[in-house]
Amino acid sequence: MMGSVKKAESKEPGLIDLVFSWSMADVFNKDLYKGKVKQIPKTFSTTNDYMKSFIYPLIEETHADLFSSMTTVSRAPTREVLAVNITKDFKPPKGLYYSIFLKRMRDIERGEGMYEPEVGDLIAFTEVRPKCISDLNRPKRPYLVALVQGSGEDRLRILSSAPITFNRSKEEDKKRESLFAVYLTNMTTNIRIWNALHSGNGNTNIIQKVLQTDSTVGENCRQCFSKENKSAAVSNARDVISPFTLDDSQKAAVLNCIATRECYHQSTVKLIWGPPGTGKTKTVGSLLFVLWRMKCRTLTCAPTNVAVLGATKRLMSLVIDAREYDTYGLGDIVLFGNGERMKIDDHEDLFDVFLDYRVSILANCFAPSTGWRNSIESTIRLLEDPENQYQLYLERLKQKDDDEEEEEDQEDQEGICGNVKLNGSRDREEKVYDQDISDFKDANKKKFWKKIIVQTLKENKNKKKQKEKVRDKKDKDDVTRDKKDKGEAGNKCDDVWTLEEFVNNRFKFYRNRLIFFIENLYTHLSTSLISLEVVKKMIRVLDLLKSVGTLLHSIAVANGGLREVLNGIEDVGSRLTRFKNFSSAKTECLQILRYLWKKISVPDLVEYNEIKNFCLQNASLIFCTASSSSKLHTEGAKPLELLVIDEAAQLKECESTIPLQLPGLRHAILIGDECQLPAMVQSKICEEAEFGRSLFERLVILGHGRNLLNVQYRMHPSISLFPNREFYDKQILDGPKVKERTYERHFLQGRMYGSYSFINVTYGKEDFDAGSSTKNMVEVAVVAEIVARLFEESVATKQKLSVGCISPYKAQVFAIQHKLGKKYSADANIDFSVNVRSVDGFQGGEEDVIIISTVRCNGRGSVGFLSNRQRANVALTRARHCLWILGNGSTLINSDSVWKKLAIDAKSRSCYFHADEDKNLAQAMTSALVELNQLDTLLNTNSLLFREAKWKVCFSDDFFKTMSRIRDINSRNEVLSLLKKLSSGWRLPQRNKIFNDMNGTSSQLLELYEVNKQLNLLWTIEILGENSKYIQVLKVWDILPLSEIPKLAKRLDTLFGNFTVNTMNRCVCKRVEGNLVVPMTWPADSNDVKKTTLGDADSVQFLQSRIAALSLRDEAGSSATTYRNHSKFKTKSGAKTNRMKKKG
User: Can you give the pLDDT at residue 478?
Assistant: First the structure.
């Protein structure tokens, strides 16, 4: 038996049979289904044609998904298999069902493999942890996959594609056989889609309405919506939404949908078009709130858990604000799904409607021996006849009946969670129920109970693990329990309660139970099961229970009169007032408790699935993903009326067939925006066949009408301008708030950092990661620098700020995340937060500042999938106050894409800036180029390093070789810093003394500047012919330790020895402007220059060729010192000439 193992939802073998039939060669054959996947039509003749059109694309997409998983199998989660057993369902050749026992998670070493199985997982079995694809198909263990149909903590129930042979081997066999389960992909959603496409007997009323172009689709039924009927249908809804401050387009969308619900003559599909920032979530929340008030049985679903949570949260905020009687009415709302995937523990505001929590709470309320019925009856008996209850208590102590003791132990173990055990001890129950929570404020009381329930669920989330802990500690616990029981038995008679103690303690215990049950029953039961009149009584009795408890305690503290008060004896002297108050409270409390005992009848349900179905059957609003809605396809399920699909444009049309076929559905409302990103599709073949297209988009293409939400409330007008014009044909208006002057924010100084900017990053370079995704590390550096400055400003001004960094490429996202590290938090609740995500991952999100890194940088104008208009739209519409777009302007303008239009538009609006115009960004880019070793880019004459240079700088080949060998980033930066300063005209005040002891011409011209304690930069002034004149330029020879400088000087002597006196004089001439030395120039036809001919000496051109051809050394050494310049030089003949100095 599998114990806690969950059973798979479907036994439909079709898709799995196909997957099992694929060999490794089939999986890697990208064209396996190319000839069978056809273009999905826009119209269909029959429902059967409609369903069939998705089948081969679904198969191909499953194939592509498996292929993608195979290519990254070396990084796949794995788990060692300890045993393989056939099950009772094992029926070859296809029914290959096995029970697999895995190595326990707690026995797995860190980093060894952490695969945690889930139902629907497709796994492979290998004899080694796979390091490459071939490890999945080894001679002794050919390719074999299996579908997980049931999962426990350390065991699986699987259906295998082939027989599994596995012998763990005898202990004496050192080379025992190994087996590993390797996760490939999860098939759950695709299996559910497959089942929906093959259902055959589903509700097709809505699907039939969307097969072809139908001008009546989306229109209201004329018979139902005469002026009289329509006004009756929407007038109440109009009153309900009046406090929500909806704009006209939002009101029209809500009221139009509400009117649709009243039609019983035809099925209708409504479309609500919600562009970015137009209040789509607010509109959906308002619509759902009205449906909740109408008790219209509605399913709300979305493609993702995030979208489902967002819709649920919006509704909950409206419901909580509008509540009149605490949490009454929440029982009509149910959110269900995988709690771990939803990360439901991070959403405490949804606990009251989350199905798993509700089931656990109601299991406690429904428990026969400790639940609602038992507790209210016990409380009534105690208040009606406390003397009799006390006598029964004394008799139990005397009898010490074993059966009674076992019953009490069972009651203790059930605690506050019914059939979910807490700790199995009386102490836990007493700690919960003996606390005086009656004085808690309502909010604190709720938190108290939620804390207990959540803690209990977390403790019991893994039943297998809990059982193992109990088994491991059994002996110790037995000994402890025996000692405790003996101690209690020995002390029980000595600790007999007095009547006053018994009444107070028992009443407090029962009262706390009742508080828990009452509040949770009116919270978690549907309003169809518990009326408002009953709820009012329940809320009243909560106050009375508090009053009775307080009076009982005060009488007991007064030390006398409790027996008389309990027995109704009025002659109690000065305690008459207290008696009357108690008597009145007790009488009313008993009256209401008896009333509630008659009115509230809880069902006799114990099992999880029974209570779950009970909750789903009675709820009015149900929230889940479109895929999870398959769980509502159960026999005897209460029919639904209305389907609402949020983010409908992101849902594959084939996946929407799951909820569209639910029993009873009459109408569907699709909310989305086809101008934003559609569903992701793995297969290129499927992408071309439009497999990712949504029903929403297809209906728009066919011309179906829709309600446009036409006012945006998110973006500053300068941000919304381009996307509104480019994607929405100027149909969207800016809301009043975003047009206010206060909405314009300046987080950094400078026009570059206004509300909307394109920042041209010209020195980037495209690189590829292991997964062939593109990144641009120079743009990464710019993003990091901007974020750092935003953080500094936020701290300095104490201004709360949220920043989003977006890129279309995963590699760029990872690179930015790595660069930023853990310095900034993504928590939006703190003063400064940074979220780094892909464009696809940011859909639906928004931040104060958005920085987009477009990445692409090439001369071809190639931008790949960056050109996708829907992806561009999403990226450009996430910012509230500032949108800064980083990119290579030249590449984007040459791309012939939407980004070309954007760059040109930015120029026309004077919003186009160059990153290197900002000194901080220029420094960040320089550092990035240094780290990337892109010296050819950085040392180019036109590079940002020399943007402010007064001197032209030339480099020898040896300099480039040495720079490429320097791995230390700091040393590289020091060299570049020196070069930048030298090119700007900065000079040291004195020349290095090392040249004092040298002979030769080079000792007169060479300059030495220290880079660090090991290396020195060596350079000279040279003469270059340029534009009919001669000009001084800097010639950088090498970076050397002191020990190798004489070798360089000796080699340069040959070159410099050929210089004429005139050339030497020009090399040492100096022109000073302020504190800077600037290059001197001479006309090319001057007499002095004419003397410098090839016959007399080296011509400038000959000099240049000799310099370019000279190769001096191979590698650098170590040690360095600083020296001063000589004041004179020696010519080739050895004569000395005074050094010329000219100031201009």
Answer: 47
